[in-house]
Amino acid sequence: MWSRRTPAVVVEPSVPELAAQPADALVSFREVDFDYGEQPVITGLSMDIQVGKVVAVVGPSGSGKTTLLTLLADLHKPTAGAIVWNDELTRSDRHPLSMLFQKDTLLPWLTVADNVGLHFRFSKRKLTRAERKERITELLALAGLEGTESRYPYQLSGGMRRRAAFLASVAPRPRMLLLDEPFASVDEPTRVAIHQDIHAIIKRYAITVVLVTHDIAEAVSLADEVVILTQRPAKIFAKHAVPLGDSRDMIALREDPVFLELYGTLWEDLGEQVRGGKKTRQSPAKSIAWKSPKSRPRNGGRIVKLRVKPKVLLAQALLVLILLAAWQYLPSIESLQGVSHVFDPYFVSSPSKVAAQLRDLATGSNGSVSIWAYLWPTVFASVLGTVIGMVAGAAFGLILSNWEFSSQVLKPFIIAANATPRVALVPIVVIVAGTSLTSSVLIAVMVVFFVAFFNAYEGGSTIDPAILANARLLGASQAKLLFHIRLPFVLAWTFAGLPLAITFAVITVVTGELLTGYPGMGSLIATATATGQATMTWALTIVLAVVGLVIVMLADVIRNRTLHWWGK
């Protein structure tokens, strides 16, 4: 959205004449109006933002403060009036503009260092790896985040996440930085500590800043000028210079008489707008009450590894023993055998007989078939079908989540296809591929594809717009948005469904083998059932259950290792 050259003038043709722009103004609003449809938000707004200054904008809720930022970021266009950029001050190759959104825009799969350096992945001006590392290390030190380079966002406290997000927005060293309620989510002591660091960083790199905030103390602490907006439709009610200098001690500042007087004045002006024009002076306290921050947190949270507790394992083992004991001995009670077929030894067999059958299946002894020749086709078809289905579903989900028109056109067809029972399609698959391994793989693909597709589509279509807008402002092209933002989100959602997908694959492949007779676990179960071999049927069912459990556990390990940055 932003090119390296900021447009000199964005003007509505109906504006007959604009006031001259001061030479030291980086950008000027000239009689700017903005409407959401028929709803006026901003009307007749004019102001100059001087280069290298911090301008705080406060006003009643819903007065259009964030809209003002989106106009500066070119995310919206003025309905009328002009936003005039100083062409003389925007000729350098410096990155034009960054924005710290109120929402969290850190990418969860990137480390702190990679999040801070996200702009370097998008920028056409390439830095060497050493230069990128030097700049990132410098910023982390300035914000008190040393030692967090290799941590992931989920391992950071709320305050540390906001520091990291702020560093990501200043890493390009933009001419202008927009801050939208950046620290509203952190507690007061942490906020004051953050103010100390970010004010120093802003002044160090001579960044022009527009800060939107509801916190008057924050506005006075950080700003060189505070602008108060009226109720919607917003225009400027008052401007106040902040004569506190560039070097500020945020803790001592709260006791400064100038700070306290200005704080009270701003409360008076803001209160007049909130109360509909009634002046109700609120005398400032002798000091702004707050708790002195303790030592700044410099270590992220611990990585939480989920392990099965010994008590759980013990309970599971005990449950298995109870079930095996009941299975072994209840059918041997004659009084129960006449009650139901459930207790008939012929139908339910017993653990001891099943164990003997499993031994024969594993070794091929006592006239039994060898299970390995039947197990391998089932497992192979399930795994291969899962891989193909996951890749195809993820790709299709990524495509449709990015093209809304195609998504709307194909939606009813996709729903209808997913609602069709897969068993009903088995004869068609057999006609096409024959009774072969290929047919088993295709049957698995038909199930897994939809699991992967719906997960991928959800992941691609629910990306927070603030994340996409932030990436664009950092210089991302459409292609880089696709590969660096959209694709990782889609893959994360796809891998999240891997255990479920492979479970469905095993079930479907076995069902297909039951129907087609292709050599596999399904056909072996069908033969055992047809010949009345209850013990064989139980043994094969247990093998399938154990194999399925192992496959799902492996899939879970793959998912957790792939999505290790997801955290708990």
Q: TL;DR of this structure?
A:
With 568 residues, the protein is α/β, with parallel strands linked by helices.
Helices, strands, pairings?
Layout: E1 9-11, E2 25-36, E3 39-50, E4 54-58, H1 65-72, E5 80-85, E6 97-100, H2 112-116, H3 118-122, H4 129-142, H5 158-170, E7 176-180, H6 188-204, E8 208-212, H7 216-222, E9 225-229, E10 236-241, H8 250-253, H9 257-274, H10 310-329, H11 334-337, H12 345-348, H13 351-363, H14 372-402, H15 404-419, H16 422-433, H17 437-461, H18 465-473, H19 478-496, H20 498-516, H21 521-530, H22 534-562
Parallel strand pairs: 4-8, 4-9, 6-7, 7-8
Antiparallel strand pairs: 1-5, 2-3, 2-5, 9-10
Question: Total number of β-strand segments?
Answer: 10
Q: How many DSSP helices?
A: 22
- By CATH's scheme, which homologous superfamily of the domain at 349-566 applies? MetI-like
Mean pLDDT: 84
| Bulk shape | elongated
> How many angstroms does the end-to-end distance come to?
35 Å
Fill in the CATH topology of the domain at 349-566: MetI-like fold
- The radius of gyration over CA amounts to 33 Å
The largest sheet, given as strand count, sense and whether it forms a barrel, is:
6 strands, mixed
